[in-house]
Structure formats: C-alpha cells, structure tokens
C-alpha cells in the first residue's frame, strides 16, 4: 500500500496517545516474577480443556531478556498428546516472555494472564521461513519466502488464543526500519496467522507493534474474533488489524483498532494465483468495530480479492479520523468478484472520504497477470450512515467497460469540513441508485424515493456459535 505523510487532528491524537500510554503503564506492571500465584479464573471459549500447564513448567523465564522460544515449543509439543483426551491449555503467567515464532496444536488454548506480555524476538534466527502462500504466488514484501508468524498454526481443529487482556508485543520497529531501508529478503512476520484450520477463536487480548499484519486467518472456516485491542503507530507500514483471507463463516466483533493500514482488510488471493486457488472469503460478519486509521480504510475489500469476496455484513461501526469507511480495491487482472456487500449504521468523525471504490489499484505480483481478467463488482449496499468533518463524500471509480453495478446508498447524512473538496461526488463507471442522501449524489446514482437498501435478516451459522464458561483452578508457579 502506498505510504503517505501522517496527520492527526489534535483531539484524535490525544485519544490514541492516551490509549498507548495506558498500554505502556500496563506493561510496567508485568515485571519479571521468579514465583507467584495464579488465582482461579473463568473465561469464555468455544471449548474447555481437561489438561493444564503453565509456561514456567517448561523452563519459561519472564524477565523480558531470556528467550522462551524453546519453552513455548516444548510446552505445546508436550500438550499436543492430550488433543484426543480432552484437550489442553497453556497459561502464560505474569511476566515478559521474549520469544520467536512458535506453532500451536489442535484442541488447545493459549491463555494470556492480564499481566503477561509476550515479546517478539528481534533475533531473525528465531523466525523460521515458511512457504509462500499459494493464493499469492510471492511474498508481500519480497518475491522470496516469508518469515513465520509469531504465533502460527496450520491444519488445526479447535484452537483458542485468549486471555484476560494480556498483551502480545511484536516489537515491530525493528522490522519497520528494515522494510523502509529495503533490507528485507523475505516478507515480514505477522503477529498471528492460522491456516487451513476449523473452529478458531482469537479473543480478549491486546496486540501492539506488529511487524506487519496483526491477525491473519487464511484458508480457514468458523473463525471467531472478539474483544481485541490492536494498536500500532499510524505511520507504521502495513500494520493491518484483522485480515480474513479466503475464509468462510467468520465473525469479528467488539474490537478497537489503531492502525497504520486498514483496520480490517478482507482478502482472497492475488491475481492469477488467487484465481487459480479459487477460495473466496464469504459469510463474514463485522460488528461493533472502532477504528482509527488516518491513511487507510476502516474496512477494505481487497485489493487481493482474486478468489472472490461475497456476503459481507457489517454494522455498528465507529470510524474516527480515518481515510475512508469502506473501500473496495481492485483492478484489471484481479478477476473474481466482490458482491453481496451489506454495511449499515456507521458513525464517522473526521474523514477524508466516506465512500471509496477503486478500479485501478494496480499492484500485481509479477508480469503474469492477465489484464483481461476483470473483476465483477455488484450488489453493494450502504445504509444508515452519519458522518461529520468530511473532506469529500465519495470517490467512486469503476473500470471502463466493466462498471461497478448494483450500488445502493440510502439514508446517509454527511457534514462537510471547513475546507471541503469542491467536487463532492466523483463518479465514473458505476451504476446504482440513492435515496435520502445528503449531499446530493452524482447523476450515476439517481434518487429513488423511499428506498431502503437491503440488509439480510437471516442468521449465518457463525452467529449460532455459543461460548462455554471454562475454568482454571489456579496454581503456584
């Protein structure tokens, strides 16, 4: 994504700074403790576990300096034997636990105590290389391979990452600097990546300073993401919040994200590689999201959407000092589709754009992209939005000969900034309707009286997932 100078309004900077300061204060509480007691606690999860362990049982040292990579690996390797016997959970106790990448196992819970901080190692030897994603064909930072994520899992069933708002700090500045200096031969690690998995829960933790994307479920199904706080400097490169990628049945709710990139980026593969892999992101719910992202979108659809994106339902969204609310990003060569998109009840304060669709997002993996592979963008429904302090209401740019169609915008009120763009609706190659929208839309979205753009009233299967109350009986460590 193109990087541009950052500018925050003073009141929003104050909010973000307060959040970051509070986070730093919490880090100070989590000092190294040679021994202690973990009191009993309950927590909500998709599955409860019969077997328990604490990281210190496997030689973990929470001083913020000693590597715990082998402790995490040994603990999870030992606990994996209990997968068919009631599953297991690993408790990360109070302390600062420096580690490189480690892999999860099935029927397993990783639980972070409130005063636990997992720190990402800055020793590249602790980040093994993993294969390039088949739907991308290359790394995002470099053509060669990619570093494994800090917390990684593949081909898993029933895996939970949760806590009492414990923290994972990727210490990403090391990686951001290398990225800016073009010193990377491989793609930066993500914070959490779960691949080819089913029944995934990521909830009630704080993620700060990821080297790149924060949460990346890919090629997975039945994914539940709840109660995350994700913080990164607004000038940090590619620190997307949550990126559901070629996933089916995903629910994202009650998250607060400050990001240097899109807060949520919905993806499904890149050009010919994504077309060949052919796995869409579909049946996605996003609700009760708060986002601050001055140079990116609150919710982005694409640009890597070559496996298709369908049936996205978003509601109760708060956007503060962000570049755009929902942005569709695509280009010739992407192929596939973005369709059946439903977004309602967004409240926005200080925005560059409210509506943004881009048909010329021309970043491609290599020279093998086929410009004849045109994307289908249709049935896009936006309703019940309110915005204030907006520079430009809409920038809607389809593709010549391949217009974005079936666009419906209704019941929207936009209050402009003190220095707005003269042209409020910049529209090309789109087809749709509008109803009760202020300021008046462009001629390509003619007024149609008394229209409410649709929002589905059926329930998706992921909404039927109910959490159990799980318990830990407490221990000394």
List the SSEs and their pairings.
Blueprint: H1 10-29, E1 37-38, E2 41-45, E3 51-54, E4 63-67, H2 69-79, E5 88-92, E6 95-99, E7 102-103, E8 108-112, E9 116-120, E10 129-130, E11 146-147, E12 151-154, E13 157-163, E14 166-169, H3 173-180, E15 192-195, E16 198-203, E17 205-208, E18 215-218, E19 221-226, E20 229-231, E21 248-258, E22 264-266, H4 271-277, E23 281-292, E24 297-301, E25 309-322, E26 324-329, E27 337-358, E28 376-397, E29 404-416, E30 425-428, E31 430-438, E32 468-472, E33 475-476
Parallel strand pairs: 3-5, 4-6, 5-8, 6-9, 7-12, 8-13, 9-14, 12-15, 13-16, 14-17, 15-18, 16-19, 17-20, 19-21, 20-21, 21-23, 22-24, 23-25, 24-26, 25-27, 26-27, 27-28, 28-29, 28-30, 29-31
Antiparallel strand pairs: 1-33, 2-32, 10-11
Number of strands: 33
Sheet having the most strands: 23 strands, parallel
Low-confidence stretches: 1-33
> Which structural class matches the secondary elements?
mainly beta
Radius of gyration: 22 Å
Helix content: under 10%
Strand content: 35-45%
Q: Kindly, what is the distance between the CA atoms of the first and last residues, rounded to a whole number of angstroms?
A: 45 Å
Instruction: Give the rounded overall mean pLDDT.
Output: 93
Number of helices: 4
Question: Globular, elongated, flat, extended or rod-shaped: what is the shape?
Answer: globular
């Amino acid at each position: 994504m193109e990087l541009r100078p950052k500018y925050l309004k003073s009141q929003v900077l104050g909010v973000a700074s307060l959040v970051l300061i509070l986070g730093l204060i919490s880090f100070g509480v989590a000092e190294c403790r040679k021994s202690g007691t973990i009191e009993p606690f309950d927590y909500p999860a998709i599955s409860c576990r019969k077997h328990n362990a604490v990281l210190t049982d496997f030689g973990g040292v929470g001083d913020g300096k000693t590597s715990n990579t082998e402790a995490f690996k040994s603990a999870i390797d030992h606990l994996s034997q209990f997968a068919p016997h009631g599953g297991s959970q690993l408790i990360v106790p109070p302390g600062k636990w420096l580690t490189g990448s480690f892999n999860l196992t099935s029927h397993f819970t990783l639980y972070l105590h409130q005063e636990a901080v997992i720190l990402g190692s800055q020793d590249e030897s602790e980040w093994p290389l993993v294969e390039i994603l088949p739907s991308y064909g290359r790394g995002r930072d470099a053509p060669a391979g990619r570093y494994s994520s800090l917390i990684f899992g593949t081909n898993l069933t029933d895996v939970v990452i949760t806590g009492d708002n414990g923290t994972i700090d990727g210490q990403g500045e090391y990686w951001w600097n290398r990225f800016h200096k073009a010193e990377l031969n491989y793609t930066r690690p993500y914070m959490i990546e779960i691949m080819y998995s089913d029944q995934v829960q990521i909830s009630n933790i704080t993620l700060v300073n990821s080297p790149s994307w924060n949460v990346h479920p890919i090629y997975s199904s039945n994914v539940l993401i709840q109660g995350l706080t994700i913080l990164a400097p607004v000038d940090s490169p590619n620190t997307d919040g949550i990126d559901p990628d070629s996933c089916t049945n995903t629910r994202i709710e009650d998250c607060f994200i400050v990001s240097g990139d899109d807060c949520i980026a919905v993806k499904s593969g890149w050009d010919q590689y994504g077309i060949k892999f052919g796995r869409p992101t579909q049946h996605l719910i996003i609700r009760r999201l708060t986002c601050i992202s001055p140079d990116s979108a609150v919710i982005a659809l694409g640009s890597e959407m070559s496996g298709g994106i369908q049936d996205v339902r978003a509601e109760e969204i708060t956007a503060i000092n962000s570049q755009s609310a929902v942005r569709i990003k695509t280009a010739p060569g992407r192929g596939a589709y973005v369709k059946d998109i439903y977004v309602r009840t967004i409240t926005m304060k200080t925005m560059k754009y409210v509506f943004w669709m881009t048909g010329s997002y021309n970043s491609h993996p290599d020279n093998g992209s086929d410009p004849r592979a045109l994307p289908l963008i249709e049935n896009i429904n936006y309703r019940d939005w309110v915005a204030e302090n907006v520079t430009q209401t809409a920038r809607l740019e389809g593709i010549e000969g391949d217009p974005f169609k079936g666009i419906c915008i209704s019941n929207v009120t936009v209050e402009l900034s003190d220095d707005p763009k003269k042209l409020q609706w910049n529209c090309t190659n789109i087809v749709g309707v509008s109803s009760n929208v202020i300021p008046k839309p462009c001629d390509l979205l003619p007024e149609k009286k008394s229209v409410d753009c649709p929002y589905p009233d059926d329930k998706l299967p992921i909404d039927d997932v109910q959490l159990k109350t799980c318990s830990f009986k407490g221990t000394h460590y």
